[in-house]
């Protein structure tokens, strides 16, 4: 039986190396490529047409969930397994809406990860560990849960780093101080702010602040 081809997408080289080693040791899978950014992942996916894709949520240039959505337009037959540090319901929900078939936290075991691959290849969905617990808790509360607003849905699509930048900008922290606290360059912080404005469809710093207030990050009274 031919081994299934896996494309690994993660911005940490050491993590990619470890995951590649795991895949290569397995009986039914082989690594066909690695990508450290969203754009690179889309290019390789179109070129290599992998059977499986492991996708990190947080990438330096794009949200992993956005990458999944774009990738599946090009190779709809691919099975995507999200592999992330973030087991929260909003991330899981948005990932599955985008077309992912599985969601696993990075603390999972090698055996469970391969089980996830196997499940996706059988046409099944797969969630693991903390993800399952969080899903059960949220779905159990579903009857009383309000439908998310457009603002909340857009916020859920931001990467954790973008969410942090949004909160700090809304709190009135300067670009230089944000850069220092997050150990980034001021230019990178400005790029994050530009991306935030595009994703949230706002056009000024004050609109960013108002948006942050609507999703509960800051109190607008503090700006008066």
Automatic annotation (TrEMBL):
Q: Name the UniProt key words of this record, in alphabetical order.
A: DNA-binding, Phosphoprotein, Transcription, Transcription regulation
Residues annotated as carrying 4-aspartylphosphate in the record are 56
* Record domain Response regulatory: where: 5-121
Q: Which SMART domains match?
A: HTH_LUXR (SM00421), REC (SM00448)
Establish whether keyword DNA-binding is in the entry. yes
Read off the Gene3D superfamilies from this record. 3.40.50.2300
Native organism taxonomy:
Bacteria, Pseudomonadati, Thermodesulfobacteriota, Desulfuromonadia, Geobacterales
Per its UniProt record, what InterPro entries does this chain match?
Answer: CheY-like_superfamily, NreC/VraR/RcsB-like_REC, Sig_transdc_resp-reg_receiver, Tscrpt_reg_LuxR_C, WalR-like
Protein name, entry field: DNA-binding response regulator
Read off the SUPFAM superfamilies from this record.
CheY-like (SSF52172)
- What is the native source organism of this protein? Geomonas paludis
Residue span(s) of domain HTH luxR-type: 151-216
List the Pfam families: GerE, Response_reg
Q: Which GO terms describe its molecular function?
A: DNA binding
For the keyword Transcription regulation, the answer is yes
Q: Which GO terms describe its biological process?
A: phosphorelay signal transduction system; regulation of DNA-templated transcription
Name the CDD domains on file: LuxR_C_like, REC_NarL-like
């Amino acid at each position: 039986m031919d081994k299934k081809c896996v494309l690994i997408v993660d911005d940490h080289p050491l993590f990619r190396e470890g995951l590649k080693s795991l895949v290569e040791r397995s009986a039914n899978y082989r690594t066909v490529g690695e990508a450290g950014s969203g754009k690179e992942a889309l290019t390789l996916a179109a070129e290599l047409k992998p059977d499986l894709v492991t996708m990190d949520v947080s990438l330096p240039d794009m949200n992993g969930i956005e990458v999944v959505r774009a990738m599946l337009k090009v190779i709809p037959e691919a099975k995507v397994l999200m592999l992330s540090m973030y087991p929260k319901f909003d991330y899981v929900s948005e990932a599955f809406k985008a077309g992912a078939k599985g969601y696993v936290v990075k603390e999972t075991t090698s055996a469970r990860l391969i089980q996830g691959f196997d499940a996706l290849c059988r046409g099944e969905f797969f969630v693991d560990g903390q993800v399952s617990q969080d899903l059960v808790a949220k779905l159990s509360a579903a009857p009383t849960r309000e439908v998310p607003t457009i603002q909340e849905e857009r916020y859920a699509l931001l990467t954790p780093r973008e969410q942090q930048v949004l909160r700090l900008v809304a709190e009135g922290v300067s670009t230089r101080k944000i850069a220092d606290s997050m150990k980034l360059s001021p230019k990178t912080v400005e790029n994050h702010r530009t991306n935030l404005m595009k994703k949230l469809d706002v056009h000024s710093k004050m609109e960013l602040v108002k948006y942050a207030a609507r999703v509960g990050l800051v109190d607008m009274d503090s700006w008066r």
